[in-house]
Design a protein that fits this description.
Blueprint: E1 2-3, E2 7-10, H1 17-23, H2 27-33, H3 43-58, E3 63-69, E4 75-85, E5 90-97, H4 107-122, E6 127-133, H5 137-146, E7 149-160, E8 163-173, H6 174-183
Helix pairs in contact: 4-5
The protein binds coenzyme A (COA).
């Protein structure tokens, strides 16, 4: 387990499916993730996705973890490293709190810090990048507070809920994150 103060990261289990299905077809959530255009998904597809996360971890292609509260062992989201480039020691990261009751309460910052810490301190990666849409102000603030910097913008890159939106690129380097975490 990768443990913080209020959340831990652990492997997804098939027993998480009930909780995932309560939230995954919420199109507000899926608009933030840019995957509303896949339409509502079936439980069997999510089961396949969970099995895929195990295989990708074994093959070291991606590391996808469930986010669980320490207080009551409740699944509240997922976090993952993917598109890992072992030569350049770089990866993409994504964090998502599925359950809206848990938005804006600091769980995203803690989960992001845990997975970025795993990327830098355990996998010895050197750079982690993410994408966030221009309308997702909560996510942008969360990532800035973890230490990510905006490094670019794909203008009008995504059509979401009736409008084109910019896709903002943010990244953080290992040295920057280590300095911040020492000072916190
Ligand atoms: C994005 C996400 C991971 C952030 O996690 P979180 O736990 O909600 O965010 P946090 O509470 O850690 O940090 C958000 C910060 O933005 C602030 N905030 C909340 N709503 C905001 C808004 N509408 N505009 C600006 N800031 C906002 C919070 O107050 C907090 O700042 P603070 O620590 O100074 O109080 C989570 O909200 C989420 O998963 N949302 C749905 C899916 C999603 O957007 N995924 C990310 C795709 S890039």
């Amino acid at each position: 387990m990768i443990e913080g103060k209020r959340v831990r990261l652990r492997s997804f289990e098939l027993s998480d499916l009930d909780e995932i299905m309560k939230h995954w077809n919420n199109m507000e959530l899926r608009n933030f993730l840019g995957s509303a255009d896949r339409g509502p998904v079936a439980r069997n597809e999510e089961e396949e996705w969970i099995r895929g996360t195990w295989k990708q971890r074994q093959e070291r292609k991606a590391f996808t973890f469930a986010i669980e509260t320490m207080a009551d062992n409740k699944l509240i989201g997922g976090a993952g490293l993917f598109n890992i480039d072992w030569t350049s020691r770089s990866a993409m990261v994504g964090v998502s709190i599925y359950n809206p009751e848990y938005w804006g309460k600091g769980y995203g910052q803690e989960s992001m810090n845990l997975i970025v810490g795993f990327a830098f301190r355990t996998l010895n990666l050197d750079r982690v990048e993410l994408d966030v849409f221009d309308f997702n102000k909560r996510a942008q603030k969360c990532y800035l507070k973890v230490g990510f910097k905006e490094v670019g913008r794909r203008r009008k890159a995504r059509f979401i809920d009736g409008k084109y939106h910019d896709d903002i690129i943010m990244d953080i380097l290992k040295d920057e994150w280590l300095t911040r975490s020492k000072n916190q």
